[in-house]
Write a structure and sequence with these properties.
Number of strands: 3
Order of helices and strands: EHHEEH
Strand content: 15-25%
Radius of gyration: 17 Å
Distance between the termini: 58 Å
Largest sheet: 3 strands, antiparallel
Shape: elongated
Oligomer: single chain
Number of domains: 1
Length: 100
């Protein structure tokens, strides 16, 4: 029996890409903000799994429990704020667009 968490794999790939892009120049930091926002939508949707059992390939969807979903969404919002603050620091502004 093979088991492949398709949604989780995509979510981890986007998370790694976003974390790497937060360290690059301006365009990479803006893309990182978009990746973190996209992650929120991926985590709140049902998780898709590909299951192979006795030669038959099927897909199954499972919803995350509410406490896990709330925690993950909160962490993604914090990471989005971190990416935005990182971007504004790079361009020499604060979070309201003012020069320090």
């Amino acid at each position: 029996m093979a088991f492949l968490p398709l949604s989780l794999t995509i979510e981890i790939v986007f998370l790694v890409i976003a974390l790497i892009l937060t360290e690059y120049h301006m365009v990479g930091r803006v893309i990182a903000v978009g990746c973190f926002l996209f992650e929120i939508g991926l985590f709140t949707a049902d998780q898709v799994y590909i299951i192979e059992s006795e030669g038959v390939i099927t897909t199954a969807t499972v919803a995350l429990p509410a406490p896990v979903l709330a925690t993950v969404t909160f962490v993604m919002v914090l990471m989005t704020y971190f990416a935005l603050a990182n971007f504004f620091e790079y361009i020499g502004r604060d979070m309201f667009g003012r020069k320090p």
